[in-house]
Amino acid sequence: MANPWAGEVSIEIDGVPHCCKLTLGALAALEAGLAAGSLVELVRRFEGGAFSSSDVMAVVVAGLRGGGWQGTSADLMTAEIAGGPIDAAKVAAQLLARAFEAPE
Question: Residue 21 pairs with which residues in a beta bridge?
Fold first, then answer.
């Protein structure tokens, strides 16, 4: 479903697969919603393993929104994400990596 060459990552929520992508608009919304810091600081936290669960949630929601999802972070609070918090963190890290990766 997801095309990694287009920066997309797949996530399963409540048994339904969704395509996530950090578009420019999604990145702008993500940056505006960060409690402190910038996208560069967020990427550094992920690279250093010092990210928080709210960082993961913010990136996943931004990616879902970039993929066309109409929900909110409140919708994910009670949702079942396949693979739990570990896989959600992996999806967030992949989204950030693919958003800032130079094409080969």
Answer: 8
